[in-house]
Amino acid sequence: MCEKNWKSGEKLPCLDSNCLQHQNQVVAEKDAQLMSLNVCTEETKDKCHGNTKDLESLVNEKDSKGQKETNSSFLHAVINMAGMLIGLGQLSTPYALENGGWASAFLLVGIGVASAYSSHLLGKCLQKNPKSRDYKDIGQHAFGSKGRIIAATFIYMEIFMALVSYTISLHDNLATVFLGVKINLGWYHLHTSQILTAIAILVALPSLWLRDLSSISFLSTCGILMSLLIFVSVACTAVFGGVNANHSIPALQIHNIPAISGLYIFSYAGHIVFPNIYTAMKDPSKFTKVSIVSFSLVTLLYTALAFMGAKLFGPQVNSQITLSMPRNLLVTKIALWATVLTPMTKYALEFAPFAIQLERNLPHSMKSRTKMIIRGTCWLNSTYINTYPCSFCAIF
């Protein structure tokens, strides 16, 4: 027994030393695991901190972009909307009133009220769904992908037809302003009016470099001033031009109402830009007030010019009132030049929906100057390739 105990006692120190070595090894492994865990934790913190910085920078970038996009005041919005509405339509209102009768003025006012109400409804649609930014988003929200395609089709058709009408107006009035002037290129056979129209389009090209609607409002202001200048020129024709406003306007010519309705509706064309005006406002809740003020001013100007032109020229009034004014008067030349400049101030605003969508689809890494060049090139190509030939097909 003693021998066995001695042997077992002899083995116990050995077991204790093995246990101590094992415990030390376990402790060392745990320390190593803790150190690696701390290292991983630090790396994770760094990564999280880096991701947080990236997220903050991305949010700040989006906030800065949002601030750039929503920098239009109430006055800027009124100027842009009124500037978009006032244009070529005012030139045809005297012709429409003369052919439809003075009672058709109620139709003009009624269409203006309906257009203003539709603008109000548009603002409500955009307010109800903040993700919607244009007609395509509204179409997709209401009818799915098919609605988006249909809305985009009508938007680009309206842009195209508006560019055509602006180019036709440029051609007609430039031909009248430079009556008798001949330009011969020799190597390329073009009429003088076509060459002048091409030059006018190139002059309007820098307006496409403006990025936001608060900057474009400067052009809208110029367009409004040109429209007021046309109105004053027509009034001066009655005062200083020797043209008596003694023609009687028929009460109502019902058979001409369908034709003149199109002219009145065209006078209020411009809804294509209204979503961009809404999204660019600092306070979109005032969009309805913007619509009421803009449409009221435009309707007042249209009605006054329609009655004044119809009383001055009677049945001899042309589809564009500036072409009915005596050509020997200085005010006529001023009115013609104002009519030439008016479409040039509208190219940028009319092209804005397409330009904004194009810029969104371009890579974010692309420089703003490169985007500007691409935007202007697309506008120039669309004008020359599509608008320019179609306008002259319509003329000739």
TrEMBL record:
Q: What's the main place this protein lives?
A: membrane
The signal peptide annotation in the UniProt record is: none
Cellular compartments per GO CC? organelle membrane
Describe its membrane topology.
Multi-pass membrane protein
Q: Where is the Amino acid transporter transmembrane domain?
A: 71-365
Q: Which UniProt keywords apply?
A: Amino-acid transport, Membrane, Transmembrane, Transmembrane helix, Transport
Protein name as annotated? Transmembrane amino acid transporter family protein
Report the subcellular localization: Membrane
Q: Transmembrane ranges? A: 74-96, 102-123, 149-168, 188-210, 222-245, 257-278, 290-314, 334-356
Task: Name the InterPro entries on file.
Answer: AA_transpt_TM (IPR013057)
Q: Which GO terms describe its biological process?
A: amino acid transport
